[in-house]
Amino acid sequence: MKKSEQGLYLVEFAIIAAALFIVLFAVIELSRIIWIWNTADEATRRGARVAAVCPINDPAIAEATIFATAGSGGPSPILRGLDTSNVSVEYLDEDGDAETTFGDIEYVRVSLSDYTVTPLIPFINTTFTLPSFETTIPSESLGLIPDPDAPTATARCSCFGVDRPCQP
């Protein structure tokens, strides 16, 4: 080997290694973004399920949607930057129009919007907003549980085992 070629392998390795690490981090970040996408989709499914069985506009619905502990009021422990302000709960009648009267509610829709993700790819500093995710399912009890011990038709409302006053 000539003396002028002694550092050539080191330079070639540096060029190839830099490209290899950029591709490696890009694959890892793409996998992470797909995981975030699936988790956000699961969050709306989870929130809609909770909304179908909890009292109307119960704060536990948004907390369950972001995977937070009921009553914590904090951000999501799973998705960084996600909080209850990203969650929207709608109650719909049989035609899909917004409804506020308890007896006319047929469907529950939970949406997750305005959630931004910052990839951790070296040399690429960008932020993008995920599209809105939503799940609509039929309403069930909406938290209303008939009281079998009451002499008249009274009911209590419950969400995650916590009784709350029913809304009129």
Q: How is the secondary structure organized here?
A:
Layout: H1 8-53, H2 59-65, E1 87-92, E2 107-112, E3 116-117, E4 128-129, E5 133-138, E6 144-146, E7 155-159, E8 162-164
Antiparallel strand pairs: 1-2, 2-5, 3-4, 6-7, 7-8
Helix pairs in contact: 1-2
Give a written overview of the molecule.
The chain has one domain. It has 168 residues and is of the alpha+beta class. Helix 1 (8-53) runs antiparallel to helix 2. A hairpin with a 2-residue loop joins strand 7 and strand 8. A three-stranded antiparallel beta sheet has the order 1-2-5. A three-stranded antiparallel beta sheet has the order 6-7-8, with no helix packed on it. It is elongated, with a radius of gyration of 25 Å. The chain has two helices and eight strands, in the order ααββββββββ. It has helices at 8-53, 59-65; strands at 87-92, 107-112, 116-117, 128-129, 133-138, 144-146, 155-159, 162-164.
Looking at the structure, what is the overall shape?
Answer: elongated
**Mean pLDDT, nearest integer?**
83
Helical content (DSSP H or I, runs of 4+) = 25-40%
Extended strand count = 8
| Strand order across the largest sheet | 1-2-5
Give the uncertain stretches in residue-range form.
Answer: none
Give helix and strand order, one letter per element, not per position. Answer: HHEEEEEEEE
Number of helices: 2
Distance between the termini: 89 Å
